[in-house]
Each structure stands twice: as structure tokens, then as C-alpha cells.
Amino acid sequence: MDELLREALGEIAATSTVAILKDVEVRWLGKKGRLTSLLKELGGLPPEERKARGQALNALKQAIEEAVDIRRGEVTRAEAEARAADERIDPTLPGTPVAAGRLHPLTRVVDEVEDVFERMGFHILDYPEAEREAFNFDHLNIPADHPARDTQDTFYLPDGNVLRTHTSPGQVRAMRELTPPFRAIFPGRVYRCEATDASHEHTFHQVEGLMIDRSVSIANMLSSMMTLLEGVFRRKVEVRLRPGFFPFVEPGFELDLRCMVCGGSGCPVCKRSGWVELLPCGLVNPNVIRAGGLDPAHWEGWAFGLGLSRLVMMRYGIDDIRWLMAGDLRFARQF
Ligand SMILES: [Zn+2]
Predict the structure, then answer these.
(1) Cα separations (Å) of 23 from 9, 11, 15, 152, 287?
(2) Quick one: how far is CA 305 from the chain centroid?
(3) pTM greater than 0.85 (yes/no)
(4) pLDDT tens-digit map of 256-281
(5) Of 3, 167, 197, 230, whose CA is between 20 and 30 Å from 20?
(6) Which neighbouring-strand residues pair with 283?
(7) What's the CA-to-centroid distance between 184 and ligand 1, angstroms?
(8) pLDDT at 97 (0 to 100)
(9) Ligand 1 center to 315 CA (angstroms)
């Protein structure tokens, strides 16, 4: 008996995992285990020997069971500890950097402009960049012999359409689509076939704004412009209004903004003048109202075409328009 017990305890102590311990347990205590076979043999013994041997075997069985239980506790704990050590988080390890995306400064300013105008009750509309020549020019009171149509300024597409040279076609489209009175802005990308420099780019951004009502005023237009500019710059801005001729407005104005890059002392963005031409604006020409399908005897409007790229440059102090479309990540990461 002692021999058997020593053997069993030795095997149990040598186990290192719960699975191996289970094998040992089955080998000794299972249905076909060594101890079970010995217990089965009891029946063949003479009655006087049976009792003593039975007691001894049962004591042995109990001792093995206890040893298995204790060992199971030990290896279970050891396994759990090994697993924990394996999975432990080391907070001192350097992390994996997450590359955060950023909004392009143009996107940011467009969002701000849309926000300001939405609060003033404007619709925000989107119109095609490839535009019919009629919408880009004729309906805006720009006659066929106007120099703006020159191929040096306009990209003509093979199908006879043009890449819109301004966002103004939205004026006529909006008048045809919406029921007056209404107010709307149309932000978007425009194209000019011209040489590029610090303040000229072949692809740039504008926001067109239009308000149509029974009666509108220059004062109302100016106050909307000031709300916009102060909303974007978040401080007082200085503007001046000059008479300007644009075929689609009558009277027309040129709204200049005191250069926010140099503060008025002169820089490449303001061409050393201290002022930046920010937007043409004015009362909508009756011919354009007519092209929009409305009767100029009953409806008036004011409109503006804001140079969004210039506005972005003023807002962030960018001194070369070409950065905006350059796709240079070193530029984009600064915002
Ligand atoms: Zn300047």
C-alpha cells in the first residue's frame, strides 16, 4: 500500500498542467484505473482478508483523491498566473501613433460661411461645375462678344459646355427652381484659364449669394456681408464699397476688405495696396431676373459672388493661393 501511495503521489506531484493531472487521475481512479481494478479484485478474496484490504484500499483511494484535489488547485493557480503574466499590459510601452485626419482650411471656412448664412435663413444649394454656356454667360447678361468669354479665360469642354468661371449661374438656376421670396447661397469650385501666381489660380472657390424679394436694399445686402465677414473672422473687419461694373448687377459694387494678412501695410496678397477685392455685389440686373423666369416689375434681388479662396487666405494668413490646391500635406497639417 505504501508503495502504491508513494508512486501515485510522485506522479501527481510531477504534473504541471490541469490536463496532465486529469490523465494521472484517470490512470489511478478512473473506471479502468489501477485502484479501481484492485477494488474489483476484493470480491475474489476470502472474507477474513477482504475487510482489512478493503479498508486499506479505501484509505489509499481517499489519500490519492485528496492529493489530486490539492494539486489541481496548485496547477490551476499556476496556469492562471502564467496567463496573466503573458497578457499583462505594460503602460510604459510606447503606443502606436494614430494619424488623425484634418479638415482642409477651405472646408473649414465653407462650413463657417454656411453656418452664418443658415442662421440668416439662407438655403445652401449645389450646382454643376460643368455648366451650359447660356447659364454661365447669356442668362447673366454677359453678351456673346464679352471679353470674359475669351478662350483665354474660359475652359471650353469638347461637348460645348464650359467649366463654370463663377458660381453666378446658380442665381438663374435658383430663380427657376425656388418659389420667391427666397434667399440662398451656392458655394463651389470655379475655373479660369489663366496664368497662376500668388493671387491667381486656375481652380478656386467662390460662394454666390442671392436674395429675391418684393423689395430689397443695398443696406440689407451690406449688413448680410458684414454678418458673414465678422462671423468668419470673429472680429471687427474694415470694408469699403466702390462702384463696380458687372453685367449681372445694376447698380454694381466692389466690396474690398482691409487686408487681414498684412493689416493694410501691403503684401503680395493685397498686391501692396492694403485692400483685397473680396466680392462683387449689387442689385440683380432685371435681365437676369427675367432669365430666371421672374417678372422684374414684381421681384427684386441682391447678389454677391464671394472669393472664397481669398477669404480663406485672409482668415489664416496664407500668402499664396497656390497652397490651397497644391495637395501638400505639410501645408494641410498646419490647420
Ligand atoms: Zn496685405
Answers:
(1) 14, 10, 9, 90, 98
(2) 27
(3) no
(4) 989 888 888 988 878 899 998 888 89
(5) 3
(6) 302
(7) 30
(8) 85
(9) 12
CA of 261 to the centre of ligand 1 (A): 5
**From ligand 1's centre to the CA of 160, what distance in Å?**
39
C-alpha to C-alpha distance for 204 and 197, rounded to whole angstroms = 13
Q: How far apart are CA 333 and CA 335, in angstroms?
A: 6
Supply the mean pLDDT for the chain: 89
Task: Find the 314 Cα to ligand 1 centroid distance in Å.
Answer: 9
Could you tell me the distance, in angstroms and rounded to a whole number, from the CA of residue 238 to the centre of ligand 1?
A: 13
Quote the ligand 1 centre to 311 CA distance (angstroms).
12
Question: From its phi and psi, is residue 278 left (phi > 0), alpha (psi between -120 and 50) or beta?
Answer: alpha
Nine-digit cell at 70?
A: 490539492
Residues lower than pLDDT 50 in the chain: none
3-state secondary structure at position 293: coil
CA of 12 relative to ligand 1 center, distance in Å: 88
